Amino acid sequence: MTRCTKILPAGSWDTARAATSYRADYEGRFRRRMVLTLADGSETLLDLETPRLMRDGDGLVLSDGRIIVVVAEAEALVEIRAVSTDALLKLAWHVGNRHIGAMIQADRITIRHDPVIEKMIKGLGGHLTHVHRGFDPENGAYAVSSPAHHHHHHPA
User: Could you list the residue ranges that cross the membrane (predicted)?
Assistant: First the structure.
């Protein structure tokens, strides 16, 4: 079985060189050591020094020289928008205060579907749109923490 001990960051390599792909949701892409089943049916051992999020477009360098592209599988997400930049910034503060993963853009915040957080955001005046696509949240100050740490809820 091949091993992967190195990951090429998305954008730093030509994805056309990919031999196959590894597809997974957010939690399936946050790993340190496990056997990954690739799209072509083969398996490889992911063996990293520390847990990390494999981002959409990253390249897994295998011991046999092949490079495997990481694909973020679509999952249930929620886009949060607001009536103004100030209002969106306040919503971003509340999302961050709940320690959940978020994709931050100039006009929206995207989080994983979470009824508790969605109710809080609606109560604060946020506008929600349910979407289905890959989730690649921002790296936090504690980037090596597990996804489980991003899903606990404080009382609203």
Answer: none
**Model pLDDT for residues 81-132, shown as the tens digit of each residue:** 999 999 999 999 999 999 899 999 999 999 999 999 999 999 999 999 999 9
Q: Which ranges in the chain are annotated with CATH 2.60.260.20?
A: 2-72
**Residues 54/4, Cβ–Cβ less than 8 Å:** no
Nearest one of 30, 61, 35 to 46, comparing CA atoms: 35
| CATH number corresponding to 2-72 | 2.60.260.20
Cut 0.85: pTM above it: no
How is domain 75-150 classified at the CATH fold level?
A: Alpha-Beta Plaits (3.30.70)
Locate CATH 3.30.70.790 in the chain.
Answer: 75-150
Q: What letter would DSSP give residue 138?
A: P
- What does residue 118 show for φ and ψ, rounded to 5 degrees? -60, -40
The answer to whether 63 and 7 have CB atoms below 8 angstroms apart is no
